[in-house]
Design a protein that fits this description.
Blueprint lengths: L1 E3 L5 H14 L11 H12 L4 E6 L2 E10 L9 E8 L8 H15 L4 E8 L2 H9 L3 E12 L2 E11 L2
Parallel strand pairs: 4-5
Antiparallel strand pairs: 1-2, 2-3, 3-4, 5-7, 6-7
Helix pairs in contact: 1-2
Length: 161
């Protein structure tokens, strides 16, 4: 089941996200956020953009949301997308349905452009974005420093209208 994320989902979202903070370069955040911080993020982002969770038997196993791409007014029809699944739930096609639901919501909101940033290499994320119609638009070399190494970031874009 896919539904709107609530601040009360913050603990479950933290459990998923903090794995990626602690153990991967997928996010450049280096300090795992506390549940209260995540609840605040959910409330703030969810007030303006969709933030969805994927549940299985009442347990949150993934989430996806859109957020501001840039703050200048001319960027108001572009968003950045984010998706995370519980690590034991990846590779089963669950992300596709969740991401597709996010994109459908964004279409209803008249968003024009969705941008996904991917720490590279990440073949699974690249594949997911490209299956959903995203096209690679560029990359930055060695822009992130995490776990004592440089990390590249690629950007994929989907024009919705």
């Amino acid at each position: 089941m896919i539904r709107t994320c609530l601040p009360t989902d913050a603990a479950a979202v933290c459990e998923i996200y903090n794995h990626y903070v602690r153990d991967t370069v997928v996010t450049f955040e280096e300090t795992p956020p506390a549940v209260a911080e995540m609840a605040q993020r959910i409330a703030e982002i969810g007030a303006q953009f969709p933030w969805l969770v994927l549940e299985d038997a009442g347990v949150v196993i993934g989430y996806a949301y859109a957020s501001t791409w840039k703050t200048r007014s001319a960027y108001r029809f572009a968003v950045e997308s984010t998706i995370y699944l519980a690590p034991e739930r990846t590779g089963r096609g669950l992300g596709f349905g969740l991401y597709a639901a996010l994109l459908a919501d964004l279409r209803r909101r008249n968003v024009h452009s969705v941008i996904g940033g991917i720490a590279l290499p990440n073949p699974a994320s690249v594949s997911l974005h490209e299956k959903l119609g995203f096209k690679k638009i560029g990359s930055f070399t060695e822009v992130g420093w995490k776990f004592e190494r440089w990390v590249d970031v690629g950007y994929w874009e989907l024009i919705l209208v």
